[in-house]
Amino acid sequence: MKNIRNFCIIAHIDHGKSTLADRMLEMTGTVDRKQMENQVLDDMDLEKERGITIKSHAIQMQYSLNSQLYTLNLIDTPGHVDFSYEVSRSIAACEGALLVVDATQGVQAQTISNLYLALEHDLEIIPVMNKCDMDSAMPDMVEDEIIDLLGCKREDILRCSAKTGEGVEAILNAIVERIPAPQGDSDAPLQCLVFDSVFNPFRGIIAYFKVINGTLHTGDRVRFVQTGKEYEADEIGVLQPRTSGSTGAMTATGDGLSKRNELKAGNVGYIVSGIKTSVEVKVGDTIPHVSRPCEQAIEGFQEAKPMVFAGVYPIEAEDYEDLRASLEKLQLNDAALSFQPESSVALGFGFRCGFLGLLHMEIIQERLDREFDMDVITTVPNVSYNVYLKDGTMKEVHNPAGMPDLTEIDRIEEPYIRASVITTSTFIGPIMTLCLSKRAELVKQEYISGNRMELLFDMPLGEIVIDFYDKLKSISKGYASFDWHTNGFRPSNLVKLDILLNGEQVDALSTLTHRDNALDFGRRMCEKLKELLPRQQFDIAIQAAIGAKIIARETVKQVRKDVLAKCYGGDVSRKRKLLEKQKRGKKRMKQIGNVEVPQKAFLAVLKLD
Q1: Least enclosed by CB within 10 Å: which of 181, 272, 327, 412?
Q2: DSSP character string of 72-100
Q3: Rounded to whole angstroms, how far apart are CA atoms 274 and 233?
Q4: What percent of the chain has pLDDT over 90?
Q5: Among candidates 89, 66, 68, which has minimal Cα distance to 77?
């Protein structure tokens, strides 16, 4: 065990985490140079295009130092705030972390939040400054920021360029020398921490875990504590690309699994036990032996809790079953996605889906399109509210349509977040204005170093769901970084805003909003819909309403036919008679006419300025 090192890499988006992992795999000979490609650990096209890690990965490397062979387990983590629970479980499986900071951009919001997670788990932090070879690098200034953040010595900070490979060897040496070996007892009852799972179409769900205590053998009968289900360990092993050829060089081919007969405390590996559904393997779960269980489960387990909800509907009604099958297949790869059937008057049958956050929602939409060729309409995303009724019961509402009658409601509570914005002092004014317009309360502001500041706000999660991040990036010219975590529920004065077309409610356009914003939001919705709805042979009244009270109205004028064209000269009563006849026809048409809402209208609601 003394020759094992388990570590992860903490970094903000685009600070070079995946590139650094590539260089390490190359230098340790884990992946053959001929087989090498950029972002080896990011196997989804989406990850490579966006330059982000969506699914965490783990891989084992062998590294020799002073004629001793060390096993390095890199447990890769997603960087985005939506996946912070997965990050926390990956961090719990490590003894050390590389804190990677971009020398051209300095410390950013997600770096800090993930660093705090690592410090809570008492990890040994190795600060690394990446992209030192770039012309725009500010190494001394960024070093000062890291020293302020960590309180470390200047000589502890390693400089490197992950792209060229310069300084990577020093990082590998530091991992061996500075990160402690795992502590655990191989003879104690088995205790394994599940930090990830993947779906294999031939073998079912493969769970990745770290053995905290005890020893696991092939064929052992084990139990998953949170689900209470028992399985046989059909196959166990380590996460290592298979060797190919006589040279013994590793390649990235194969499924990255290398069989073993036993795994002892401190090791990181996988288990195949014929599990069919991803819901049965929960990230953060504990695996003990059935015959000799451990005394208690590993602390820190949480259920994956969706934060953002949206309706997903097929454009063609006959695609409903295909959409269900596509969502079920996606759920095999992503247990955090939840969905349940719902129907809408305007859009027909579809599903109400729960996502970890906005990025997660975007990725699911993109994957539905790419992997399953599904064209879908997504309704306005909203968060879940706690509605307390007058009879003392509490109801969780994910959908405006599920809101109880106003007369039954005692109070509504909405989720709040603690948001951290890091920016230069130049943009503080516009950022403050933006946040305060989103009902935020400033908690504190402090200088990190030089002219860079961190602002902490308490704000409603519902306010950042639609366009907050885009606006923040545009007013700060891309310089502000943003991160958040949940901070409980607070009572709020919320109302349900309905959109009516010719007196008919369009449930897919209903939203829950704060009473102070309702009038302005309703007026803008009506104006936007007036631009987007095609004209009919009759007037279309677009109204925004709270309960029975209409707060805004626009009218899409009818397309008129000139019935008087043939009436030249003659008595005015002839013209009057024709116009009355047309008026009766329009009235009858309005009763049976159907107003089609184009998909653009649903998307436009998201883009309201």
Answers
A1: 181
A2: EEEE----SGGGHHHHHHHHHT-SEEEEE
A3: 9
A4: 1
A5: 89
Annotate 68-90 with b (16+ C-beta within 10 A) or e (fewer). Answer: eebbbbbbbbbbbbbbbbbbbbb
**Arithmetic mean of pLDDT, 183-203:** 81
Distance of CA 432 to the CA centre of its chain: 25
The residue among 34 and 512 whose pLDDT is bigger is: 512
Name residue 519's amino acid: L
Please report where in the chains the tokens 């003394």 appear, as a residue. 2
Instruction: Taking each helix axis as running N to C, give the angle between helix 599-606 and helix 515-532, from 0 to 180 degrees, rounded to the nearest 10.
Output: 140
The three-class DSSP label of residue 599 is: helix
Q: Is the model's pLDDT at 210 over the cut of 80? A: yes
- In sequence order, the 6+-apart residues with CB closer than 8 A to the CB of 534 are 596, 598
User: Model confidence at 253, in pLDDT bands (50, 70, 90)?
Assistant: very low
Share of the chain residues as helix, strand and coil, in percent rounded to the nearest 5: 30, 35, 35
Is the pLDDT at 124 greater than 80? The verdict is yes
Residue 42 has pLDDT above 60, yes or no: no
Pairing state between β 308-314 and 348-355 = antiparallel
Task: Say if 146 falls within a structural domain.
Answer: yes
- Is residue 565 one of the residues assigned to a domain? yes
The 3-class SS string of 543-593 reads EEEECCEEEEEEEECCCCCCCCCCCCCCCHHHHHHHHHHHHHHHHHHHHHC
Q: Domain count of the chain? A: 5
Query: How many helices (H) and strands (E) in the chain?
Result: 14, 32
Same domain, 221 and 273: yes
Backbone angles phi, psi at 476, to 5 degrees: -105, 10
pLDDT tens track for 334-360: 777 888 888 876 677 889 888 887 778
C-beta of residue 451 within 8 angstroms of C-beta of residue 519: no
